[in-house]
């Protein structure tokens, strides 16, 4: 598949097969994530592999749709507010690289924002100075949804003089 085909076909997965995902593959996709642009090479991302006990304590309403692997991805605060914001953006790019690399090999993700809640930060053991960008179910899709309609990009472009 071309990168455009990968981007256009990627979906959020809400039903996973029980098939295990090899951690070596996941590491390869996370390594692809590190190629994300990040201002001043801050490399602000941190990745937690969430084990069964922590996963149970998180008590996600759908148990991450039974994904065989759950990851929490964090972004380290910067020295300034602007650097912190840049780090969050860079970490989102890291996540997208990871998602696309996994999707190319038939593995999907579900992105939950639940990690930002104080209770869940405590369960995950997140230290001050980090933002939780998301908690992700990772696995082989049982079902792949149809794409949702998007606003044409022409409606979002403004030409400045």
From TrEMBL:
Domain of life of the organism in this record? Bacteria
Species whose genome carries this gene: Metabacillus litoralis
Cofactor(s) in the UniProt record: FMN
Q: Which family does it belong to?
A: Belongs to the nitroreductase family.
Q: Name one Pfam family in it.
A: Nitroreductase
For this chain, one GO molecular function annotation is: oxidoreductase activity
Nitroreductase domain: which residues?
Answer: 7-60
- For this entry, the protein name equals Nitroreductase
Q: Which InterPro entries match?
A: NAD(P)H_nitroreductase, Nitroreductase, Nitroreductase-like, YdjA-like
Give the residues annotated as coiled coil: none
The record's annotation in SUPFAM superfamilies points to:
FMN-dependent nitroreductase-like (SSF55469)
Keywords, alphabetical: Flavoprotein, FMN, NAD, NADP, Oxidoreductase
Residues making up the signal peptide according to the UniProt record: none
């Amino acid at each position: 598949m071309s990168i455009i085909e990968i981007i256009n076909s990627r979906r959020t997965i809400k039903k996973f097969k029980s098939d295990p995902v090899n951690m070596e593959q996941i590491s390869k996709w996370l390594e692809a994530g590190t190629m994300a642009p990040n201002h001043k090479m801050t490399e602000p991302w941190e990745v937690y592999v969430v084990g069964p006990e922590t996963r149970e304590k998180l008590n996600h309403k759908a148990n991450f749709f039974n994904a065989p692997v759950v990851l929490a991805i964090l972004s380290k605060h910067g020295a300034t507010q602007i650097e912190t914001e840049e780090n969050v953006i860079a970490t989102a790019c890291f996540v997208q690289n990871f998602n696309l690399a996994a999707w190319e090999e038939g593995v999907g993700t579900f992105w939950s924002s639940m990690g930002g809640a104080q209770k869940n930060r405590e369960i995950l053991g997140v230290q001050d100075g980090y933002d939780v960008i998301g908690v992700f179910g990772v696995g082989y899709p049982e079902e792949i949804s149809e794409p949702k309609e998007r606003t044409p990009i022409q409606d979002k472009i403004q030409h400045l003089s």
